[in-house]
């Protein structure tokens, strides 16, 4: 029986999207089955965006008139550093590698259809080093496990510079990032670990440039401001008899930069992503708060384009 190429283009991206989303969520639930309900509740908007992207992909794969599509399944490796501050003093530093897979796509962005729609979904995980201190300011070292998801959607208007192969595209969009931060118990027995479940909604505003040297090769650079809209951190302190504490870190703008190349079958890029959060308000009887926090992420993506 001959395979229908149109429908194969539909179900291959759908399978990638499902795997990328389910792997980190399943890992988080395996870590603690009690996380299933808060994960589903916290990520309901993320799942809604996933459904939208899935339906969008179905529509454009079934309507061949919209032929200006590009999909990219990629592996990502990141050097991740997380720091927290109080009164300009560094309270803790976490650093180490994170790994994951992502799926991104583009529709439009041609001379005949300059309006472009972009989307990306990515899952990541890893163990990194924790170098901090207890509440009594006793130095402590341990490990932190990260499990997370990120999705972004947006659009732009591609402007071509004559026949030179250069193009520029102002871009704007929205993003959502969710991650579980699991600080393990110290092997020295001095400090006990706990878990945090973060989520952040943000806007993106920037520009993308491309240089096409042939039908099968192009280089690109993208820079965008990350503009936080809402941040939340649920801290699970049941082991200390304090239940779950929810704080809302403040908004601070940050930066995304990516440079890379794409051929007909391969894509390679390097990137920097910053995350910035100002100190949250105090909450609860014990006046809990999230200190000023920041993350610097340097990484490489290697993917297969189709």
The gist of it:
The chain is of the alpha+beta class and about 300 residues long.
Folded structure, characterized:
The chain is of the alpha+beta class and 306 residues long. It has one domain (5-305): Lipocalin (Beta Barrel), CATH 2.40.128.100. Helix content is 17%, strand content 59%. The protein is built from three helices and 13 strands; from the N terminus they run αααβββββββββββββ. The protein has helices at residues 5-31, 36-42, 44-62; strands at residues 69-86, 89-108, 115-133, 139-157, 159-160, 166-183, 194-214, 217-236, 244-247, 250-251, 254-263, 266-278, 292-305. A ten-stranded antiparallel barrel has the order 1-2-3-4-6-7-8-11-12-13. β2 (89-108) and β3 (115-133) form a beta hairpin. α1 (5-31) runs antiparallel to α3 (44-62). The longest helix has 27 residues, at 5-31. The chain is elongated, with a radius of gyration of 21 Å. The model is unreliable at 1-11 and 62-66 (pLDDT under 50).
Give the CA-CA distance, first to last residue.
Answer: 24 Å
Q: Which H/E pattern describes the elements? A: HHHEEEEEEEEEEEEE
Q: What is the β-strand count?
A: 13
CATH class identity: Mainly Beta
Q: Unreliable runs, pLDDT <50, ≥5 residues?
A: 1-11, 62-66
Shape: elongated
Question: What's the mean pLDDT score?
Answer: 85
Give Rg in angstroms.
21 Å
Q: What CATH architecture do you see?
A: Beta Barrel
